[in-house]
Amino acid sequence: MKKYKLKYKTRRKIDGFIFVLPWLIGFIMFFFIPIKNTILYSLNDVSVGKNGGIELTFSGISNYINLFTSEVMTDSKPLSQLLTTENISIITNLPLIVIFSLFLAIIANVKFPGRGIVRVIFFLPIVLGLSLITNWTQNSTGKMLIESAGGGMFGAKMGAGILLQYTFLPKSVVNFLAVVIADIFRLITKTGVQTMIFLAGLQSISPAHYEVAKIEGANTYDIFWKVTIPLLSNVIVFAVIYTLIDLFLNSTIAEEVYNFAFNESKIGIGSALSVVYIGNVLILLLVVLFFLKVVKIIDDK
Questions:
Q1: The domain spanning residue 235 has which CATH number?
Q2: Is the pTM higher than 0.85?
Q3: Which DSSP string do the residues of the chain spell out, in sequence order?
Q4: Domain span including residue 195
């Protein structure tokens, strides 16, 4: 009897499905039901029933209408203004965090005396808990550094003045750089996981690629742009997606969802904000992926 042999592409698809199956089961068990309930609550007025429990009164899209017309956020801003501010902040910080993470990973991947100790010191906050270390540094050393930088030679205002005086950069670019300088410590605290991702990607590149490039006469600049970056394309996409989600999870919108649902007991409004929040994340994610596709970061294969 002749055995049936699966095609290579079919086996690859089956292997891929088996690989994501644990995540799929976990998503259905722990995320699908909460997402379904959130959408359900957003279309109803949620209140406590006479005999306890939750009572739902269908209201259609009134929660969404009220969210954009009558409801205001904690700082008395409308939702449209808050979304615009958060999106601009995320789009601005996203490339800065990813590029800086790649820069740190390249430095950590270079061979130099004491490299192991430097890696331990750099990645220790991630192992112990990044939020704990970040809060401690912001309340002690980091806060002192920021305050000293703000009033010292490299303060944001003085730095902007130097750039305006000695460069030909437009004022808008100088103001942007001044804001980045003032916020550099907070950005550094958000690069830990991405740096580990890039470092793993760099170490997965075979040295043979670099040897061939050098034999062909490529310099360091050519090797970086024509060897390292193309081979890190999938890692870059993963780091961008992770950074985007992480920025949204730590944004003001997430705090407003909690405030509406639990502090003000407006579960319907809070659920509607959650749905808008998720939709905004997905739209921005599609825009970023499309941009990466245009600049050829995502491989067409």
A1: 1.10.3720.10
A2: no
A3: -PPP---HHHHHHHHHHHHHHHHHHHHIIIIIHHHHHHHHHHTEEEEE-TTSSEEEEE-TTHHHHHHHHT---TTS--HHHHHHHHHHHHHHHHHHHHHHHHHHHHHHHS--TTHHHHHHHHHHHHHH-HHHHHHHHHHTHHHHHHHHHHHSTT-HHHHHHHHHHHS---HHHHHHHHHHHHTHHHHHTT-HHHHHHHHHHHHTS-HHHHHHHHHTT--HHHHIIIIIHHHTHHHHHHHHHHHHHHHHHTSHHHHHHHIIIIIS--HHHHHHHHHHHHHHHHHHHHHHHHHHHHTT-S---
A4: 86-250
